[in-house]
């Protein structure tokens, strides 16, 4: 039986242990972020896009764009009450403790929460008393819960006001902006509400060490001086933005002296003309990076600002590209002591850790909402929406291991790793061509077009042209029989790690399709015995046919490394088979 003294001693040492593991408040110190021990902290984060704020493209609804327009279409199909029920369940299903536990296990040490202001307070036009703020418990409770999940995993939570009162610019979906109403820059009432919201949040979380910072405005994009500058990229003064961020900082500091405040420039976070010099000794300068080259020149203007004003940088949003681009961008950031937050944790599509599966019948929903199809009966529409709610849950998401591998292991340059366990253990074993190893470009594979540079003039590349199965640069399509490699070009190659149960000589066969002659495949291994195969015309690139190689290849018992090189492309490849001789 424990005595009270023994229990007290146990509690004391438990408290000491917890304190020794705690990193404490983050702080800007010169050009880096440090913890309470003064140790440098590189934030490796994930943005939870689509939870509090839906953007249409995340769910193949780009034709609608804003969340309020998506709600209107759902209401047309199932009515107001079921629409409310749908959104309540959406907020319950999209992000849970299991999501945060998983992100911590994958290697993330921070979470960026894109907040919609209307979960915390009423819109200005809906306030019962003009100039007063009605506070809504829903958003605060969701944030409290998320903070508990983060703290349990010892990862930081960064609050990001993604949708401001009125909307912060001309990109309507990112702020759920209704263009018929005054935006943030046209309404003093909206700005006062935004300042009050940040003061309310700061007062609530002032003592919370696992709050990493306050990202006070996401991607402003507005022409203050020139209305034709719709993206805000050419503004030279940015007076209203600088004033608003200064006012928000002042309000936060009235109730919270400790937390980092993160600022963003105009032009989607990157135009800092007129924003500097800085006005607080605990600021971090955020920038966003998409679809450009991953060289020092691409971030040089931010490095110059960091050096000039002695302020840490944070790559507050990036992603939406191939794994090759992810590895390069993160390597660039970390080499320069810059933390990062990726966009985003889950959506429909492959370039995120978690993929939301498209419900059965969802195309009918897409067709109706885009005006291309008839109205769906309420019962059928509700069934589609219920399946979408189920598919939101992490237990029903598709986990893309290749994405997180590219964001962590590959940044360290640690070679290849099997995408799937491949074992040759039968007289004839077939391996899918798409199951090549995980690893960087020119390490696990080589593809002539491995990344997307949509914001780089003159560069027309897309990465995986099929946009399915995995997020590496290799082009993959899918049909009723499964995924296969297509758009194969001269000199491209794939690397495989294969376990062989019985050593010996094996004949190789390939399932290929080609509508032109001349294609060739070279298979080599670490035993130095290459084998070749010519690819015949099969009538069409999707008219698959099995073709045997010219000779045999020697495989040892245990792990074998194989490299499949396409001497001449112009064909598609579904699989390769190994038959023991």
From TrEMBL:
Residues 451-579 form the CBM6 domain. SMART domains: CBD_IV. It comes from the Bacteria. Keywords: Glycosidase, Hydrolase, Signal. It holds the Pfam family CBM_6. Residues 1-22 form the signal peptide. Belongs to the glycosyl hydrolase 5 (cellulase A) family. This is Cellulase family glycosylhydrolase. It comes from Sediminibacterium roseum.
